[in-house]
Design a protein that fits this description.
Mean pLDDT: 83
Order of helices and strands: HEEEH
Low-confidence stretches: none
Shape: extended
Number of strands: 3
Strand order of the largest sheet: 1-2-3
Distance between the termini: 16 Å
Largest sheet: 3 strands, antiparallel
């Protein structure tokens, strides 16, 4: 929607900020943390910061597991050495870079 111009700003695609999720919905969103053990009987999760600076144990009433996703470029396709004009999109910042590229380079086909 953002790249195609259906929404003006990439911020229009963000449903809730982390602060809004916490204040309005009581949802504590943890980014840059990794769950490495879940005890479903005790409703506890062991987590560690991705940068290795900390660990914690969390108790939960409800648990949502969002595993994320990574885009990959197929290895069996001959891609140019300089991958200029080849994009993967995972985060909004990736869409912003793609839109900036389109505005700057005006490519004729995708």
């Amino acid at each position: 929607y953002y790249i195609g111009g259906y929404v003006r700003s990439h911020t229009d695609l963000i449903a809730l900020s982390l602060e809004e999720a916490r204040k309005k919905r009581g949802i504590d969103v943890l980014t840059e943390w990794e769950a490495y053990e879940v005890d479903f009987n005790k409703k506890m999760v062991r987590i560690s910061e991705i940068n290795g600076n900390g660990e914690d144990i969390l108790e939960y009433r409800y648990l949502v597991i969002a595993t994320g996703a990574y885009s990959i470029l197929p290895k069996n396709i001959n891609l140019p050495e300089r991958k200029d004009g080849i994009f993967t999109i995972r985060h909004i910042v990736d869409a912003i870079k793609l839109k900036e590229y389109i505005q700057k380079k005006s490519p004729k086909k995708a």
